[in-house]
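Note to self: keep these together.
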Amino acid sequence: MTFMRDTIETSLDNDDRPRLSTHQKALKTNLDPVRYGTFAEIGAGQEVARWFFKVGAAAGSISKSISAYDMAVSDAIYGRCKRYVSRERLQSMLDYEHGLNIERLRPSRGDSSAFFAFADTVAARNFQGTNECHGWMGVKYHAHPRDDDSQIIIHVRMLDHENRLQQEALGIVGVNLLYAAFFLHHKPQRMLESLLDNLTTDRVEIDMVEFSGIEFRHVDNRVMSLKLVQLGLSGAAMLGPSGEVLQPSEVLRKRPVLVERGSFRPVTGQHQYDR
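Structure:
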C-alpha cells in the first residue's frame, strides 16, 4: 500500500524546538560523558565522522572510525551481500560494529557508557553523473548504560547536482540522526522533524524510516512513515501487507509495476475508480 503526499493532511503543529547548528549538535554529543561508539561509513567519504572530529573533543565519544571501501575488505568484515548500498549491508554493519563495542568495551566502561554504532553505505554522484544518488544510514545504540538495544534506520536520497554538496548534505543528515537518537528519542515525531535541520527538501529526501528496540517499542512505524510525507521529506510512503515499512525503490527494483488509484478513507482492500 502506498500513500502519496496529496492524500495526507499537510498542516503541522507549531515546532518550537531550539534550532542548533550542525557544529553545536556534534559538539554537544562529543561532550556528553555517556556516549561512546563507532562510525562505519562506506561511500562518499567519512562525512558524518568528519563533523565529530572537526568540532573537537572527539576522544570523548569515538572508539573507532572505519571505512571499508574495497568490496573484498567489506565482505571480509561484514559478510557477503548482493548489493553494497542496501539495507542488508547497513544492518550487517550495525550489528557487527555494535557487537564489537559491547564485547571490547563493556568490561571496562559498561557502567558509565551508553554504546552506539553509526553506519552508512552510500552511492554519491559518480564522475560521469549517471548513477542513482542514495544511501542507507542508521544507528544502533543504548539510550542509557547497560540498556537494551534501540535502532533507527533511514533511506536518504541526495538531490544536489555536485558530489561535494551531496557529501556535505549527507554529513549533516548523519549528525542530525545521531543527535535525535541521543537527545530526542522520547519524542519520535520531533526526531523526524529534526532530520531536516540546517537542510532543505531541495537537497535531501528521506523516503523510509524504521524505529525498533526498547526505546521505540511503542512507536508505530506506519505513522512515522506518513509523518515523513507530511513533513515533505518524502513524496510517498509504502507499507507491506502486514504493515511493515518498505523502501519503494528497493521493493520495486527490476519488477513490473501497475499503479491503481484507490480510496483510503477508510482503507479497504478494494479499488474505487472514477467513472
